[in-house]
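Why should sequence recovery work at all? Because a backbone constrains its sequence more than one might expect. Tight turns favour small or flexible residues, buried strands favour hydrophobic ones, and helices have their own preferences. The token representation captures these environments compactly. In the example below, the structure is given first.
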């Protein structure tokens, strides 16, 4: 069964960075985001005029859009490297 975790605030680049450090998510793992949260994240990056590289990657952790529709808005699913 998949676990969906709140990162404690609205999903943003800084919130994801903080979450990765706090939970010690390892390089090579993935965070699966609700499609609306993923699109919000892409827009945030665009507004900062930072280059967007797809797939999104923050500190070696792949940021993935949920295509199944199972991840609730405002939550993430952690997928360990060996399970993807």
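From this structural description, the recovered sequence reads:
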């Amino acid at each position: 069964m998949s676990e969906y975790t709140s990162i404690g605030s609205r999903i943003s680049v800084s919130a994801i960075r903080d979450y990765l450090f706090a939970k010690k998510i390892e390089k090579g793992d993935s965070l699966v985001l609700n499609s609306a949260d993923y699109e919000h994240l892409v827009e945030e990056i665009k507004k900062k005029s930072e280059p967007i590289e797809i797939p999104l990657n923050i500190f070696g952790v792949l940021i993935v859009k949920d295509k199944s529709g199972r991840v609730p808005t405002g939550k993430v699913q952690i997928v360990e490297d060996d399970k993807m």
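A few observations help interpret the result. Residues 41 and 47 are 10 Å apart (CA to CA).
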